[in-house]
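In response to reviewer comment 3 from the previous cycle, which asked for concrete evidence that the modeling workflow produces usable outputs, we include below a single protein chain processed end to end. The sequence was submitted unchanged, and the resulting structure tokens are shown without manual editing.
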Amino acid sequence: MIRLYTENDFIKMRQAAEILCQTHLALKEVIRPGITTKALDDFAHKFIVEHKGAIPAQLGYNDFPYTLCISVNEEICHGFPGDYALKEGDIVSIDNVIDYNGGLADSCWSYAIGELTQRDQKLMEVTLESLNRGIAAAVPGNRIGDIGNAIQTLVEEENDFKVIRDFIGHGIGKTMHEDPQVPHYGRAHRGPRIEAGMVFTIEPMIASGNWPMELEDNGWVAKTKDRSNVAQFEHQIIIHEDGPEIITDQSKYQLTDEDIEFIKNNPIK
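The workflow returned the following structure tokens.
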């Protein structure tokens, strides 16, 4: 069942989205070579819980044990923070979900550590553009399949990358994952009709090689079978009569003076 939400729901989602985006902005300030992914997770947890008074919604979800999903290079998604120290040339995708007073917000962003290879830089650019193409197709009257088709056309026909098939976008509102399911590939003019009141994520995961994946023994961390690198960008959008509203657009927000003070007082070593 696809739920349709109201302005009262949107207000709570936007409040959660502001905290989510400020968390990403704070991570941008501290991420660098030499930092472990667990240190980033610890920093984000403290920022979200102690500083912002919000709930990291991924922590404990189906027993997921961390605040953030941090996926590096060939890891597609659901990466476990750990002892890995970031190094020059890494692609790091950080997925964050915030629950604030019952409003949910979800966004993943990929970060380049230092200078990337030419192909990985192109991968990042195409992945972000594919997200924008998908959002542009998310208008009332279109169908969910139009989103995936727009993404796949850019990625696989106009460029020589591959769309990951095993993980897709999703509705979000009462719960973190609900209908509609939003594939990032497929045929246009197929699937549920897009209408005002829908809220869902678009989150293409794009591989520089081939798309088949495998899971680690922990049942969470997904990697490309050919160990090619992956980038991911994700926005949560609200569908209005006049088109989509991107509530997780980081450019709409900024760090507060209190946020900046928090960063100074909580250095990552």
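The chain is about 30% helix and 25% strand. We consider this sufficient to address the reviewer's concern, and the full set will be provided in the supplementary archive.
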